[in-house]
Request: fold
Amino acid sequence: MEYRNLGRSGLKLSELSFGSWVTFNKQVDAGLAEKMFGTCLDAGVNFFDNAEGYERGQSEIVMGKALRALSRPRDSYCVSSKVFFGSHENPKPTQIGLSRKHVTDACHDALKRLQVDYLDLFFCHRADPETPIGETVWAMHNLITQGKILYWGTSEWSAGEITEAYEFALANNLTPPSMEQPQYNLLDRERFEIEYAPLYQKYGLGTTTWSPLASGALTGKYLTGIPQDSRAALPGYEWLKKHMVESDRGQERMARVRTLQPIAEELGVSLSKLAIAWCLLNKNVSTVILGASRLEQLEENLGAREVLPLLTEEIQQRLHNS
Ligand code: NDP
Reply:
């Protein structure tokens, strides 16, 4: 495993990390999570991603149990949480968003669920147009000074919103955001590569990128239909099935996957590994967050770095054109 600084911060994250969206509590129980974390830690992974909104907090409970069972030194790995969507089925107005109150409550709740004394990374899961940015920046800064979180950041904020938060923090001697968590994969590139480009330069923004396989589309397994045991077939994720495969846009995406598959075959590697390795080519990526519903998937994906030497200029150009 190689390690990269989280943007301009001193924190070194493993190039590949592991997250729990959809999977933990739905497809992965605490026992399997423990095995997965063991595999990750043995491979050198040092960052595990979570959010209050994943399975309404249950995902963090599963992660907390698994990490506790492994009892590795707390200073050898990092965990995150995210605030915005809340963890209640029918949330009260104070239980969602980025107000000082909810940011603070969400942090305390995540600490309990994850069974840790502090969060290494704490993200604003989306921007909240109903809360002044300064209030959120202050809330995050206060949590840092209290030792409850170490780095704070955003997820899927526009470049303008990140700039506003950063400039507010600078103007008021507060801690600015260190990282953003955007989607980045062979099918979804624009925001990461174009919209955020000035932010890497100007602020040294770190990134923990999500869905390297576009929820599994970039494994190629949806090219011949929707496997019964896949994410797109899960009850409650019909919207994702539409987005990935069934809508016009989904069909366009599948057509692009169809052109990528032969490149992987020619190189003699799986499309999954190729897609993950491709994300690592971009130096503005601090860590690629992997997802997996099975141990075998995780083991395969953790081998993605092996593909890096095969990604010559010519192959990169062909991937770009596909
Ligand atoms: P991926 O795009 O890699 O999708 C992972 C899913 O694809 C797996 O759960 C599995 O689903 C399938 N899969 C993975 N590897 C293989 C394989 N080798 N062969 C076949 N199928 C495979 O990542 P995620 O979408 O899970 O995102 C990763 C993490 O990023 C999340 O866990 C979360 O921490 C974070 N995230 C953050 C978001 C944000 O808004 N900040 C949004 C989304 C994710 P299955 O077996 O069920 O088909």
